């Protein structure tokens, strides 16, 4: 038996219309109000999860393709996850809450102060999912859009600046002695003068230092530069990789090498592999779902086409399902990698139906061909990951109560019985719980 692992939930549709477009999720929740998220956060805390990460994209995308993004609410609207965080903190006592933030959107001093405030308000439970998307740059300044690696350089400058502000209260600066009436010793505050490539600001920060560690830094980038960023800066890395031994070990080794190269230790960073399981009550049910997924009806294909149309900013729903997909429909703005992921090895002569059917197809956890299976089968997979040294997993889905209950109701007791999922939290907030094992 392997030891406990860390569990996170990735709120994949962000602070947006949960369940929109899925008739079975039509429960009349108001996604703009905090209740649906608070209910989910309480469920995750009861389940023993370490953290919830809230996806975000601050932009509705290119002006030419706006309608594709909002038509079925796959690409927006999204409200600001940083402002949802306090409501989730209020509803829970131990769960870490990790809004997605993009350095393009926040000046370092503002960010350091807001994050510090939330870290204190929450009892040290804030994390920050630092992303480097540059497509939304035009909303924040007229400056030229940065390239991929330059956006990571900027993120490192931003984070280093924020951390220097958080640390601008030196040891002994905060006194709080009622007998002498001394609150603080200003001579122990460091001035902080930053003149960098992307930011210029002075400190010190007008917020008191942390007692239980800084907000946890989470990162999702999978490129070489992204892994380097994670190794040097992150407490948690979100990993997307095939879940076989060779690739899990290789992914972990790359992050660990980057951490050591940056003067940190491998154990400073928890790597969570992202998985979206479909948990069934029996192996027969799992077999039925997998068999049906090989023959999706047109309604299911249209639903997939809608999501792809939003992600690829190209209207696939207007195309004939039974004609070859002409890749000239994709404009210059669509990355070749994304088009390649849609087409796979089927070639350009294959009809659109074949590509969408391939996306619909699921597989069984039991034979490692996919993620449909019973709670016991899923627990076997997690145990196997643990045997390879894994730190934890990130389950993926919306925050609709139906999704959470379907995923967790049978799974949590099984994981607990096997000692993979924590039964209790330690004091000290998110960092303390991440370091508890
Ligand atoms: C699990 C996971 C979650 C992500 N969440 C977000 C997100 O919420 N917002 C965002 O803009 N990008 C998100 N990304 C994309 C990454 O931030 C990054 O832009 C992308 O992986 C490209 O960087 P890379 O070239 O280093 O991989 C996510 C990626 C993964 C794997």
Question: Would you give an account of this structure?
Answer:
An 8-stranded parallel β-barrel has the order 1-2-3-4-9-10-11-14, surrounded by 5 helices. The chain has a two-stranded antiparallel ribbon with strand order 5-6. The chain folds into 2 domains: 6-166 and 197-280 and 371-434, Luciferase-like domain (TIM Barrel), CATH 3.20.20.30; 295-360, no CATH class. It has helices at residues 35-47, 66-70, 81-91, 108-121, 148-166, 224-233, 245-261, 283-293, 298-311, 336-343, 352-360, 375-387, 401-408, 411-417, 429-434; strands at residues 6-11, 51-54, 96-101, 127-130, 174-177, 182-184, 193-195, 200-202, 216-219, 236-239, 270-275, 278-280, 372-374, 392-397. It is globular and about 80 Å long. α1 (35-47) packs across α3. The model has no long low-confidence stretch (mean pLDDT 95). With 437 residues, it is α/β, with parallel strands linked by helices. 38% of the residues lie in helices and 14% in strands. It contains 15 helices and 14 strands. The structure holds flavin mononucleotide.
Topology, element by element:
Layout: E1 6-11, H1 35-47, E2 51-54, H2 66-70, H3 81-91, E3 96-101, H4 108-121, E4 127-130, H5 148-166, E5 174-177, E6 182-184, E7 193-195, E8 200-202, E9 216-219, H6 224-233, E10 236-239, H7 245-261, E11 270-275, E12 278-280, H8 283-293, H9 298-311, H10 336-343, H11 352-360, E13 372-374, H12 375-387, E14 392-397, H13 401-408, H14 411-417, H15 429-434
Parallel strand pairs: 1-2, 1-14, 2-3, 3-4, 4-9, 9-10, 10-11, 11-14, 12-13
Antiparallel strand pairs: 5-6, 7-8
Helix pairs in contact: 1-3, 4-5, 5-6, 6-7, 9-11, 12-14
The protein binds flavin mononucleotide.
Flavin mononucleotide binds next to helix 6.
